[in-house]
Amino acid sequence: MKTFLLYLVSILTGSVLLTPASAQTEPDKRKKQFNLESGLALQGYDPVAYFTRSKAVKGTPANTYAHQGVTYRFASAQHLAAFKADPGRYEPAYGGWCAYAMGATGEKVAVDPETFKITDGRLNLFYNKFFNNTLPKWNKDEANLKGKADASWAKFYKPAGA
Questions:
Q1: How many domains does the chain have?
Q2: Do residues 60 and 98 both lie within one domain?
Q3: What's the pLDDT tens digit per position in 65-118?
Q4: Which of 16, 72, 80, 123 is deepest in the core (most CB within 10 A)?
Q5: How far apart are CA 62 and CA 77, in angstroms?
Q6: Over the stretch 138-147, which tens digit does the pLDDT of each residue have?
Q7: Long-range pairs for 111-118 at CB < 8 Å and ≥24 separation?
Q8: Containing domain of residue 67, as a range?
Q9: In terms of pTM, does the model score above 0.85?
């Protein structure tokens, strides 16, 4: 009854009561902003392999790990351990959305996880379907697009403490 009365008072006064149950947590924010096809980041590709093998490699269900609400798969236990030791190093830029689209239009566009580029130590992914590969477009104006993509992503997602 007490909860109902508090709710009724908040409606009548136009105020919003924030409780721990209604406050959005950091993992919830990340899940809403990251590109999670079928609930997995990078469509199940191993984020560490992009850096260590210089290619996209599918992860396995046996090597699955959720970092702040975002679930990743890894090709090996060693890659999983490397990610756990330094997740910020391996997580994709712009939540795994197309870097070119984020810079050119500020939009979240799906990617082909096999079309990527490591820039300044960050994994950037690109749309590559229907004869439209955005990686060459990114390469032509990378410095400009990267700055715009950073600004666009900041509008979608600000990590806690930032």
A1: 2
A2: no
A3: 999 999 999 999 999 999 999 999 999 999 999 999 999 999 999 999 999 999
A4: 72
A5: 9
A6: 999 999 999 9
A7: 111/35, 113/42, 113/43, 113/45, 113/56, 114/45, 114/56, 116/50, 116/56, 118/50, 118/51
A8: 24-85
A9: no
